[in-house]
Design a protein that fits this description.
Blueprint (H helix, E strand, L loop, with lengths): L4 E3 L2 E3 L4 H14 L4 E6 L1 H6 L4 H8 L3 E4 L2 H11 L8 H15 L2 E6 L2 H14 L4 E6 L8 H10 L2 E7 L4 H9 L8 E4 L3 H5 L8 H5 L3 H8 L4 H4 L1 H23 L1
């Protein structure tokens, strides 16, 4: 994999979907510890650095997927890197497909009980042979974490999907990751289970290909406007950073 790219205050890995899946397959085959996969997007540029613990676990992630189209644009503007968007939701499904083919069990933690149960029922239908090692909804209190960790460790699962939303899922891993004994791949999947369960629809394919899935979600959920406001600011900062790089380059000539 090429060198990780710094985008303002966070990073993204310059890879294609095919390369990301290949890396995940290698981790599952040869990994000796939990390896983390987190989504990298413009919103996290403003939230991750505010929390030192969160910043540390994000920086040490084994894969930082270019989940947001803003990260793809930024990588092209700042580095000329022709990377492609790798949505976390689609990456999860690719991992499930790989798990079904290779015989890896999965554990699904997060979302409501209803959504979690529905998603776990649907996934093996989509990917025949997929083995569910266990599941748990995302509303367990701190006093239940010891039991949850034991359940995960005894499940035989090699893959753990954390559907707690960001930054909660990254913080969960920062706190409990060292207690995972058999897990080799941990992916933060945010609200993906809602999509799998049919509670939240994915954008039509044409919207996805045009890189405006965020707009489709915004139209469905206007309350997301506050979160999406950061995208224009993010792009302004990227352009400013590019101008600064060009200026410094000219000064050295």
């Amino acid at each position: 994999m090429d060198k990780r790219l710094r985008i303002l205050n966070i990073w993204v890995d310059p890879l294609t979907r095919k390369e990301a899946i290949k890396r995940a397959a290698e981790i599952l085959k040869y990994g000796q510890r939990p390896h983390t996969v987190f989504a990298s997007n413009p919103e996290k540029n403003f939230s991750i650095p505010k929390d030192p613990e969160l910043y540390k676990v994000f920086a040490k992630a084994d894969l930082l997927l270019p989940d947001g189209i803003g990260m793809v644009w930024a990588a092209r503007i700042l580095y000329g890197a022709k990377i492609e968007r790798v949505p976390g939701a689609e990456f999860m499904e690719e991992i499930c497909k790989l798990a079904a083919q290779e015989g890896y069990k999965i554990f699904v933690y997060g979302a409501t009980e209803e959504v979690n149960r529905a998603a776990v029922e649907i996934l093996p239908q989509r990917y025949p042979g997929l083995m569910i090692g266990g599941r748990a909804h995302g509303y367990l209190g701190p006093e239940k974490m010891s039991d949850l960790i034991q359940q995960i460790n005894e499940s035989g699962a090699a893959i753990l999907f954390l559907a707690l939303g960001s930054p909660k899922q990254e913080k969960w891993y920062a706190t409990y990751g060292n207690s995972l004994e058999n897990i080799r791949l941990v992916q933060g999947v945010g609200g993906t289970l809602d999509t799998i369960a049919g509670k939240v629809p994915r954008a039509p394919e044409i919207w996805q290909k045009c890189g405006v899935e965020w707009l489709y979600r915004l139209l469905l959920e206007p309350k997301r406007l506050k979160r999406q406001k950061i995208l224009p600011l993010f792009m302004v900062l990227i352009l400013g950073s590019k101008i600064g790089l060009n200026s410094r380059g000219s000064d050295r000539k």
